[in-house]
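During the no-cost extension, the postdoctoral fellow (Dr. R.K.) reprocessed legacy sequence entries with the updated structure-token encoder. One reprocessed record is reproduced below for audit purposes.
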Amino acid sequence: MAGLSDHTDASGPAGNEPEYEVIGGVIDDQPSGLARPVPGAGSPPRTAGNFGAAAAEAWRSARTSFTSWWFWLGCALGIAAAWGLAAAVVSFAEANGWFDTRVASAIYLITAVFLALAAAVLGAVWGFRHSQGRLLVLLLAGGIRGVALGALAGGVLLVVGASVGGPTALAVAAVVVIILEVALFGLIGAGARACFAAAAPGAALTALVVAFLCVGNVVATILLLPGTTVMDQASVPVNVERDDSGRIIAYECVGNLRPVEVVHTERVAWIAAANPALLFGSVGADVVPTDNELGWLLAGLQWAADGPSREVPCLGGESSDGLAPSVPVFVTGLALQSLVAGLVLVPGRRLRARRLATGSG
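Re-encoded structure tokens follow.
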């Protein structure tokens, strides 16, 4: 993670002075000679929840990244890696006959998927590097950095989409996901760094959490899927209606129940919902036309999260009118990512405050 540092080298006497952290989590990014006056020392008190003050502090934090060539190098490497991996995957798939015909827009869609993963990794690195500050400041600073990465990635996607074909709205969806992932994974990186006095254990924890959210959760879901196959009861569907993709959307049930074998994918699909690539797929599925050659891939996790009741109708003799509405995968995914960030950030900040209190005592 050290290879993606975005700290700048300062010159002059002030450049060698350390940053000072106030116990309780508030950070003053300015050198001691330029420190802001504290409340009660000739200046009006500042409200801890003041959004404007937090936004200004977040901008100062993000600006240190924007003035560092390491930050822009990280953005460039992330985008290049996403495009290169997408090109390699498409070439391998075509060479092995995975596509019946050449799918021109495949590289566009898959590049967007890998960009979501790149945003998560970069966001965690940047959050690790800038781990001090209030929660709102950390979140806003991550969002600002995400806007910078999203603008570059969105431009690249538009160029790729224009050259190979594909819906422009997919690039917009990718930018939105990139901003969210940089912000949320930034909190994970900041929390992991705060958990330890030394950087190495924090880096290891960050890598472990990011690896699980980006790869491990999908592997775990696939391994658990065979155990979700069970025998259930279903009746006969009539008046069946399907959408443009062939998915059953409405039906009525008649007759007696009979045994059927079904796979209750909804029992494990939620584990993979926090994966940035699949979260993007959930968002992208709403903007990609249903007749797109690879559009069905983006909706795959949503179908799994809905469970067999939407593909094997009349489970338990229940018609479509009695089914609960679907919860979008991206909603579940963002909630799980936020939960993981909280589980890392909250104890991390407490441990840091305890170390500061012990050191000052």
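The longest helix spans residues 329-360. The longest strand covers residues 248-263. The remaining legacy entries will be reprocessed before the final report is submitted.
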